[in-house]
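Take a record:
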Amino acid sequence: MPLALTGYEIGLLTSALVFIVFALIVALVVPRSRPTFPSKYLGWFIAACIVLFAVQMTAVILLAELGEEEREEVAQETEPDETTPTETTGTTEATATTETTEGAGDPVAGKDVFLAAGGCGSCHTLADSGTTGTIGPNLDAASPSLDKAVDRVTNGAGIMPAFADTLSEQQIQDVAAYVSSAAGG
């Protein structure tokens, strides 16, 4: 599968590469050709370092905000249309109405959130997804219930951050449904 980078990720990568190349050149190349560097150019050198640092931090702050907006747009585009009640009639005159539960999670979509959007596998172990993270609890051993998984993903706990601002409500329901079903909760 090819590596697909979004616009903000390319911007962050570019600014990081410029900063890293500058640091490597100043640390490894320049001292060999000019052992007294920066000597009389110390002011210019410090100014260049400050400018590159400011550019890097600005890129991180501004481009991260753009990335959040892109994620929100994608989440809005991928949310399913609202479900409506449907009526079914049997062989008798009685009419039954069934409603789909709004907010019910889809474990299949939840696996995608677990592996990609949420990045859950970097911290958690879950055999079904093939992840072996060791920072957070082993979800196979913890076997969280659906309600507990929704609470943890939404509000966080301990070192786990809250994802209420990062994931849509449907994504939270999906990943919670996936974790609770895959872990046997």
Q: What stands out?
A: Helices lie at 7-33, 42-78, 107-117, 139-142, 146-155, 169-182.
